Amino acid sequence: MDYTNLLAKYCDSTKLKAHDPKLFEDIVETGFFRADLKPEEDLKGKDVIDLGAHIGVFTLSAVAHGAKSVFAIEMNPTNFSHLINFTKDIPNVKCQNWAVFDGVTRYVYHFDEGTLSKAAKTGNKENAIPAFSLEEILDFSKFQGDDIFLKIDIEGSEYDVLLSAPSHALRRFSRIIMETHPVPHNDGPGKNAKFLKEYLAYFGFEVVKMTPIFWLKHDANGKEISWTVIENLELLKFVRKS
Fold first, then answer.
1. Which helix (H) or strand (E) element contains residue 212?
2. Taking the CB of residue 147, how many other CB atoms lie within 10 A of it?
3. What pLDDT is attached to residue 116?
4. Spatial separation of the C-alpha atoms in residues 62 and 29, rounded to whole Å
5. Using an 8 Å Cβ cutoff, are 62 and 50 in contact?
């Protein structure tokens, strides 16, 4: 489905695409649809928590597809300023410049890798960002019920977030789409997409789609060359079956 016209109802999608063409392409034009995202079933009428909202592309996409409301969390202050700018006129979107982590660590420190931003437990004071658990994020959202959609793209912190979440919090979600990142073996061997698949099965979730993540290669002149798989990164869609 081409829904860039729907996005235009809520923002200047041309400006959004110009700001970050790769991100726009990866989320709006192809990205999460490779994970079998079905807007009519997965988003329409649902409350959405967007962890790692970046500049708001997925948040805006969810609104365009009929999401009831979105609670968007973005750690990087620069990305967050763009997120606010792109969503400021949408009444059913709330944004916070927070990190989501294990609930014990109250501040994390962000550092950039190109357009990405990763969390670290130590760093410079000026990079400190308030950190909350998934359960706390749910409380702050004020969302009710157990049919909430969760999107996660937090560059490796998904393990800290999900492993620390109590069962009653995880069962508030009916669908989860996340990008998974393997972590170094010295930070917990075996933490990868397969591990999360088996872990979330204990809480009634079943993987309905597991997709390798691709990047589009360009030559020195910016011409598209080919899609290539990023080793060990996966895009997963979970549906709660019980």
1. strand 205-218
2. 15
3. 63
4. 13
5. yes
Taking Cα atoms as reference points, which of 23, 46, 43 lies closest to residue 179? 23
Torsion of CA 177, 179, 183, 189, to 10 degrees: 40
| Confidence (pLDDT) at 163 | 94
Q: Are 226 and 234 in contact (CB under 8 A)?
A: no
One-letter amino acid for residue 107 of the chain = Y
User: Residues with Cβ < 8 Å from 69, sequence gap 6 or more?
Assistant: 47, 48, 92, 93, 94, 143
92 band by pLDDT with thresholds 50, 70 and 90: very high
Domains identified in the chain and CATH numbers: 4-97+137-240 (3.40.50.150)
Higher-scoring residue by pLDDT: 115, 105: 105
Q: Which residues is 48 bridged to in the sheet? A: 70, 149
pLDDT of residue 22: 64
CA separation for the pair 57, 158 (Å, rounded):
20
Angle between helices 57-64 and 77-87 (to 10 degrees): 20
Dump pLDDT digits (tens) for 39-55.
Answer: 889 999 999 999 999 88
Residue 163's φ and ψ, nearest 5 degrees, are -70, -20
| CB contact at 8 A, 79 and 116 | no
Q: What's the N-to-C CA distance of the chain in angstroms?
A: 30
In whole angstroms, what is the distance from residue 2 CA to residue 67 CA? Answer: 17
Q: Which of 46-50, 153-157, 202-206 has the lowest mean pLDDT?
A: 153-157
| Residue 153 pLDDT exceeds 60 | yes
